[in-house]
Amino acid sequence: MxxxxxxxxKDGQPKGCKNNGTxxxxxxxxxxVFDWLANMSLPNDEAVFDFVEVRFKNGxxxxxxxxxxxxxxIGDIVATQAxxxxxxxxxxxxxxxxxxxxxxxxxxxxDNEVLKIYRKASQKDIxxxxxxxxxEEPMKVKARQFAIDLKLQMKISDIEFQGDSxxxxxxxxxxxxxxxxxxxxxxxxxxxxxxxxxxxxxRQEASRLGGIGSCGRELCCSTWLTDFRSVxxxxxxxxxxxxNPQKLAGQCGKLKCCLNYELDxxxxxxxxxxxxxxxxxxEKGTAVCQKTDIFKGLLWxxxxxxxxxxxxxxxxxxxxxxxxxxxKEKIASLxxxxxxxxxxxxxxxxxxxxxxxxxxxDRPKGNKKRRNNKNRNQKKNRKPQNKKTSKPSNxxx
Length: 397
Hints:
Layout: E1 51-55, E2 61-65, E3 77-81, E4 86-93, H1 96-104, E5 117-120, H2 123-134, H3 136-149, E6 155-161, E7 167-173, H4 181-191, E8 194-199, H5 202-209, H6 233-238, H7 245-248, H8 263-270, E9 280-281, E10 286-293, E11 298-303, E12 310-314, H9 315-326, H10 368-380
Parallel strand pairs: 7-8
Antiparallel strand pairs: 1-2, 1-4, 3-4, 3-5, 6-7, 9-10, 10-11, 11-12
């Protein structure tokens, strides 16, 4: 969802809006919501919704009330209320769509604990905020070393300073409960600021840090996915995926969220299939299911004792045989129902000059010694030719 200035030019090179994520459409940031109501006017005598969505570091968003009736638009830097002092963030959504987002996240607009927007950020606020952001990375390196020295089983994944540089929030992940009271004393003595420790899950850590998945795209959790549903190994079984933890796990170390994306399609398709443990009884013998192809609707069966010979039948035919078996009836054999699997080998292009050959430009390597012997033998077998002198036609006798 990029703005028009982020498109490519005539030469194929990206133009780039050069706003570094602060453009008016906010399309270069993580977890962006497209404001499809931006060009629509409100009905008469309808007040504008006085809440706005503000984004902070790594996609963290909160909703604030615009008590001062400030004219805010997407991309404005504002100073917001915090528990102590103020914070600096960027407006990412305004108008009626904020009401929809707050309703979806079950945030009550009339709650007394709703925070407020103080003002638009001045240049002094932005300078303090930028200086605090520059200190986060070297602080994270030192904080990790302190945790290692104290032998704490935890990983400090990210540090976020408050906009006025009065507090630093340390995000960490841990398998078990961690006693970090001594660590906070070390942090306060070394960094000389208020410290807040916040534990996050492994999926939340991956969404904050971002990265590239095995599919080659940016992580879903850091771009558009906001709710983390539980993923079980049964989702991989239904889709007939190999239960390999290295392939099924994402960067967070948990099962990939994308395993749930196509699960409903597989479950709908499996409703027409018989259970794989159900055997087919025929007069020739008992057949056992060996393999299924869900979207083609095919099953492979083999007789007990003849495991090398597989017979292909459709799901409807298998259900028909099972229905007959329930009536204590048997068919003669699976060969009556079995069909040959037709594989379409038609190519989209015809290879007329060997385009698909990787070695079509390579010269064939000949044997140099054999070629030299061949030339030597040809010279030996060559017969001498007699030179005939031709008389001039006008010569006098």
